[in-house]
């Protein structure tokens, strides 16, 4: 409701600004004797509106006050020195200039409210999202939720649970060689490689997209995990000989670390990942 109201105020302020511009154009066209003077004042009015747009309404109104005093002094000087009268032209700009500033401030403030709300929604969506938007793989948020469930099952039914952490070797260098539009595709291909190497009741997660790191939760012990590791590396070698080298012009290598869940040593899902990542140092 608040978002709709802000959007409505922003739209109305923009429409009012356009109407005021039209009124200024008509007024200038109807006063050919003061054409140059009116054009100069209109430019000043737009300048004050721009200052308000990029700063604050306080700065805009202060500058408008300075303009009113300056313009009033100029008109007063002309009246005294030339014996003229204060006409409609003077009152028009004394009203129109601050009015343009106020309308721009309303438009700007409402637009910024919408931008802030949009940023908050994006952050909230990113926080709640459990699937990577480009690869459709479960992410680290999903891992955190599932790991608590998996470890609970492992403890309750005495089923061994092992976490594999899979990382592409030299990814920071490789990503410079692969076109930007193919990076997500490369990550997806490696993900499919890992997915095809595990059973249906095991789970695959994209833990870190920027560093090309996956996590696999396996209901097996370390010996069973070694079989999965060998299977993944064998499939990778086959793909390097056929698809990867031809598609991405590079051969991909993987580092895989495995750690079996122990309730006494693993405090939380992130500690589980950390311990598995330490095992990557031994896979060269």
From TrEMBL:
Pfam families: GGDEF. SUPFAM superfamilies: Nucleotide cyclase. The chain crosses the membrane at residues 12-29, 35-54, 61-79, 91-108. It comes from the Bacteria. Residues 129-280 form the GGDEF domain. Coiled coil: none annotated. Keywords: Membrane, Transmembrane, Transmembrane helix. Gene3D superfamilies: 3.30.70.270. InterPro entries: GGDEF_dom, Nucleotide_cyclase, Rev_trsase/Diguanyl_cyclase. This is Diguanylate cyclase. It comes from Paenibacillus graminis.
């Amino acid at each position: 409701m608040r978002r709709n109201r802000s959007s409505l105020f922003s739209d109305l302020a923009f429409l009012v600004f356009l109407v005021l511009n039209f009124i200024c154009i008509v007024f200038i066209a109807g006063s050919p004797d003061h054409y140059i003077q009116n054009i100069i004042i209109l430019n000043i009015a737009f300048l004050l509106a721009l200052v308000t747009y990029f700063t604050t309404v306080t700065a805009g109104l202060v500058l408008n006050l300075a303009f009113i005093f300056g313009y009033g002094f100029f008109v007063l000087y002309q009246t005294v020195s030339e014996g003229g009268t204060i006409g409609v032209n003077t009152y028009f700009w004394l009203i129109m200039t601050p009015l343009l500033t106020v309308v721009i401030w309303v438009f700007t403030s409402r637009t910024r409210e919408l931008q802030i709300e949009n940023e908050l929604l994006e952050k909230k969506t990113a926080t709640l999202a459990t699937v990577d938007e480009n690869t459709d793989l479960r992410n680290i948020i999903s891992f955190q939720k599932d790991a608590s469930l998996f470890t609970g099952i492992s403890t309750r039914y005495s089923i061994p649970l092992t976490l594999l952490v899979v990382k592409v070797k030299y990814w920071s260098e490789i990503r410079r060689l692969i076109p930007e539009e193919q990076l997500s595709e490369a990550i997806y291909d490696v993900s499919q490689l890992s997915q095809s190497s595990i059973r249906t009741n095991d789970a695959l997660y994209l833990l870190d997209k920027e560093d090309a790191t996956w996590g696999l939760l396996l209901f097996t012990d370390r010996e069973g995990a070694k079989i999965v590791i060998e299977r993944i590396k064998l499939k990778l070698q086959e793909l390097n000989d056929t698809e990867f080298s031809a598609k991405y012009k590079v051969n991909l290598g993987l580092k895989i670390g495995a750690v079996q869940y122990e309730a006494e040593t693993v405090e939380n899902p992130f500690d589980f990942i950390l311990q598995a990542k330490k095992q990557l140092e031994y896979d060269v």
